[in-house]
Give the backbone structure.
Amino acid sequence: MTYSKALEIAEKLKMTISNEFSASDKENIVALYREVLRKEFVKSGCNDCYRDALIEVYTYLKREGKMKEKSDYSLKNGVVIQVFGTNKVYTNENITNETAEAYLKEYPKAINQFAHYPDDWETRVSGKVAEEITLNEELVTELAGKLTEGATKKSLKEDYKAYEIDGKALTARALDAYLKAADELNQTK
Amino acid sequence: MHIDKDYEMGKCDSLIKAGIVADCDSPVTKGLEANGAIINRNDIDFSATVFDATRKNIIKTLVLKTGKQGYEVYCPGGTPFTGAKTSLEKKTYRNAFTNDIPLVILDNGPAVCETIIEGLANGRFVVILRNKYRAADGSAEYQVYGYYQGLTAETLESDKYSEDTDGGWSCALKETGSPKAGLYLFNTSAATTETMFNTLLSGTTNSGGEVKDPTA
């Protein structure tokens, strides 16, 4: 979903904020919350959870002028990380690739505290320059199309793990790069 | 080098290590805050959980398995979680501790029965409650129950004419055989620990970005 589309949906939902949300409005708020803020909506006992969530989404979009950037790393619940020499605490709310990699460089065994991480995290952390990948445009377009049709990255990784280009199977790192490029292609549409 | 036999490998010491005196700077105070967390014990990633290297009754990071989360427990009233206590359990070779944690569920109906009550009846849980007493460094606030053996339901009842629960549910959770008198969650500072506690309750995952377009 693009920034402008998200803002359009949020504005439409904001028009009905003084009324009771319908079931489909609530579903939209949950989806928007996940898409814009990259976190799951947790419904607790509060009366205005959906209204609060919509305000949080709308405020974020207006203030930041973009969707929350997706990090390649996410932490398991219960984990916070602090990079040595700073007093800043990182959670899934604010973790970036740089922070995660700096932390893992210091404490590689802490990878078991991460829920998701790229397959090539060790290469990234060790600072070795990875081999440049030249992307095949046809495959990028094909993957972008499948993502638009609703395929998930996880399912595409599974479907394309044996895919070959010039007789060579795609590595996990190359497939990540292809999916990233496909995502970017969809964003620009 | 003299090695006290109580400290030899495999022989755990059973000695007190400090004077039994009151902390005048940070006096102990009774009671609990109204909110805490309950976690299915099976959802804890014990291999990734980290204990403090020097203070052995402190968990520095309580880690949940990927995709798992804890749930808030809230108990209103002037004395929330009344009856929460830890007591000595006499055993043949090594004494242990029993933890009793009462919960109230001020709600009832098909969803409550399905999503909460039937789980409570059969599951094994870890509960984190917030002491009003924090200690000088904040390390005494978040107390963890059920880490070693798991808390299980001893009683679970809905009395339709109860003056206390108004037809909701009351539940008594118990853990027996805990080797530690108290286990606390604390990492660096009160603020960091609060952030960590909140992440236990969060459904956050920033890698599951594929969602349907809500307007589609």
